[in-house]
Amino acid sequence: MEYKTLMDFVGNTPLVKLQRMVNTKTNSVVLAKLEGNNPAGSVKDRPAINMIKQAELRGDIAPGDTLIEATSGNTGIALAMAAAMMGYKMKLIMPNNMSMERKASMAAYGAELIEVTKEDGMEGARDLADRMAANGEGVVLDQFANPDNPLAHYHSTGPEIWHDTEGTVTHFVSAMGTTGTIMGTSMYLKEQSADVQIVGVQPADGAAIPGIRRWPAEYMPKIYESTRVDRTIDMSQNLAEETMRRLAVEEGIFGGVSSGGSVAAALQVANEVENAVIVCIICDRGDRYLSTGVYNP
């Protein structure tokens, strides 16, 4: 008998119908893909495994090497899990205002956590990762420019959505941070049907939603191609957090703030379009955010 490993349980996450939050007047359906069911608890498990696996196959890295990555949280946790499973050392760089749960999760997997200031932000974290690699401290996988990030979703997330909706999906809604999820999934779904609409969610001015970014031009992820996104929706902090809390109370789905933003955008589309089948991504689990107080009444 051949037993399965942890890697075999990344992907094939549930796609569930929202039952109470959708306006039934348009007869549209909103389906939520529960990426918190991945082993390390987020959609980032997919690219984390694929970036390491493909780098190994190319001979760029080998077990025992040190990997370096700038992260706001979920990619770091996923990479820490993948590194532990595949035999690598992991150094993660992140802004110091990320939640305690995220930091503790990375450390639990044995990763070394290096913090930059809130003011330096993710841009500063990315710059530090590059300097460390230039000093020979390890190899940067670079989720922002690495094609193995979106290709993970091209080979898994997209096909799963197409299969589970039996090809009826009309809209795909995803938060945009690193943009790997929306790029790879768009690539696959558009190959199946050019009519599928891809909707990206970005933060409104002043919003600070973990996992959703509006990058300065010089830091725009190199994997991002604007032609793969048909529409972008600016998401307010309040609406993302309110929708996140409603998801838990009304649907029993315990997700993070970016998930609330994705669902809020999906509900907006559902109110505008009749007979649509809208798939949105629940990026991670809500227990990663409890210490921030966003779930407090």
Automatic annotation (TrEMBL):
Ranges for domain Tryptophan synthase beta chain-like PALP: 8-284
> What is the required cofactor set for this protein?
pyridoxal 5'-phosphate
Q: What class of enzyme is it?
A: transferase
EC no. given is 2.5.1.47
Pathway-wise, it operates in:
Amino-acid biosynthesis; L-cysteine biosynthesis; L-cysteine from L-serine: step 2/2
Q: Name one GO molecular function term.
A: cysteine synthase activity
Would I find Ribosomal protein among this entry's keywords? no
Q: Which UniProt keywords apply?
A: Amino-acid biosynthesis, Cysteine biosynthesis, Pyridoxal phosphate, Transferase
Record's InterPro entries? Cys_synth (IPR005856), Cys_Synth/Cystath_Beta-Synth (IPR050214), CysM (IPR005858), P-phosphate_BS (IPR001216), TrpB-like_PALP (IPR001926), TrpB-like_PALP_sf (IPR036052)
Q: Write down the chemical reaction(s) this protein catalyses.
A: O-acetyl-L-serine + hydrogen sulfide = L-cysteine + acetate
- Among the Pfam families in the record, one is PALP
Q: Which family does it belong to?
A: Belongs to the cysteine synthase/cystathionine beta-synthase family.
- Protein name per the record: Cysteine synthase
